[in-house]
């Protein structure tokens, strides 16, 4: 085949341009750490990475929900612990007051003390979370769940929250209905009733309340167990989700990030090819120079 | 027997012939870097009755040319122009659907993530605000993408309109070149005609063929004749009332033939493909995503209640139809003004109920898009993926067509390119022959002089 001088120069110039382009591309990949910088670099890898990123972002949103719920449950448990402590103290005082050795005046003093504990328990039962929601109100979370007499005004609603991009964790809130007669006795009114019985020296009522106080303690204990189980479940969810998100991040890296060793090898090869093509171009130009 | 005066005549014709060779070689060297130039050569022919009369004469310069190769180059030129222009244009479209900020699927992820966060504290005004903000950002993002895609298609349309003017001018030049060739047959005119045909091919693709009469006919994809000998038709761009874009027609006198859908190569073919196929598909998919997003979110949102316990309110302004849904997508104005209206609770429950939030979040993994076959996220990814695939294919096509063109350029160069060393050798050969003939003439002249002196 006849090859003219101009053609020789064109061929070597074209080869040099291609090699320069390759060096530029591989250098860019190495400096950015990304193999896929635009979707068309590798559409299939980009699609896989975007799908994974979408799942990852949704999973992170679930993580935020779980963290919020975990914090609220912690505060709920703290409130229930306060109520449990108050009920336990009330039971102790009630047992003391039920003794025949106590006078009416002594019982009145105990009654004042129990009333104070009732108010403290009521305040704990109406505790609000960091977002202002009443922790034990169920779905009616913008209204104080217990009135001044300790009667429950909320509902039995509990929430589920997303635990991953597709999964849900149920029972992430505790409703104050656990502390009502539907689940044993009305805990807070019971305290108020004990305080009144002590203040009015009403021994039959006081003694009748003692078994109810035991029931109340069990109710609160059960609620705290539910709270603990929910927190444990959320903790497990968090651990699983963290592992999942780590896997997702690794998958994204595999899809779009550059393999440094491979890229460095490509760069070395491309640089060598560029050097050779530049030398060949120079040689061809020198070769043709005397006759042109 | 030849006389000395006849021999002088032989010498003169020989010097003239060798000088013609020198002129051709010099012209070849002068045009060594002229784009589209085909090397010329001159054939020598010995005159009869040598050595008694004899001598040499030259014919007209001939141009190295292979019509089949020229046709292949012309076709390859249209293909290369098409793939290069489409690669460039579709890269712009790719930027429109995926560049300059988060992609639609990423914004969808942010919306669903914010819904998830809000589900744990549905009365929290900051979290509710985040959801509304994410929805607003998503709507604005889809609107922007739709506008960018429309702008990319409009740019292609403008290029098509400009290119039709150039194509008509080139067709006129081609017809004029045909006329000039019919009169003179000048090789330089043939080169010029090939160059015009090549430029026309870069714009409109099609085929140029040289018929037996030496005239070039230029036929577009689909068969419409743009140039027939010395007559050129006009490539006209007129606004299509349906699309607002230019429709193309070959206008020949009173006859007009629509070629909008027929042109499939050249830069016009590339821009038509971008405008009417790839770009149109992207715009349609964006509209579908916007429509599916608004309708599916609204269906859930209207079934749930805001903080005020009222249900039946949409999340996005309800679209009336798929077409144009992307460019009009917006968060419902009342919701945008107050995140209290965000329906995260089931009706007739309390504000702390998060059933609505969970239902909205679940839309992230439900197949509610593309006729119930895709999730919203996948549908949004599909918009970019289709353009990205087209872009990747265009890059491959451009590389392949570049290689084909390079190979054909090598073949053409092998046949018709000017090799300066070769021409310098020819030059030396002609020069030596010319000098030798000058010596012959000088010798004969001396002989004649001696003869005259001795008479």
Question: What is this structure, in a nutshell?
Answer:
The complex is a heterodimer of chains A (292) and B (455). Chain A is mostly helical. Chain A has helices at 5-32, 43-97, 104-125, 187-199, 203-256, 260-288; strands spanning 161-162, 168-169.
Characterization of the model:
The complex is a heterodimer of chains A (292) and B (455). Chain A has 292 residues and is mostly helical. Chain A is built from 6 helices and 2 strands; from the N terminus they run αααββααα. Helix content of chain A is 69%, strand content 1%. In chain A, helix 4 (187-199) runs antiparallel to helix 5 (203-256). Chain A starts with a helix and ends with a helix. The longest helix of chain B has 60 residues, at 125-184. Chain B is rod-shaped. The interface between A and B is large, with 60 and 60 residues.
Question: What are the key terms here?
Answer:
heterodimer, A: 292 residues, mainly alpha, 2 strands, 69% helix, rod-shaped, B: 455 residues, alpha+beta, 3-stranded antiparallel β-sheet, 11 helices, 62% helix
Spatial sequence of strands, sheet with the most strands of chain A: 1-2
**Order of secondary-structure elements of chain B:** HEEEEHHHHEEEEEEEHHHHHH
**H/E order of the elements of chain A?**
HHHEEHHH
Number of strands of chain B: 11
Low-pLDDT runs of 5+ residues of chain A are none
The number of distinct β-strands of chain A equals 2
Radius of gyration of chain A: 37 Å
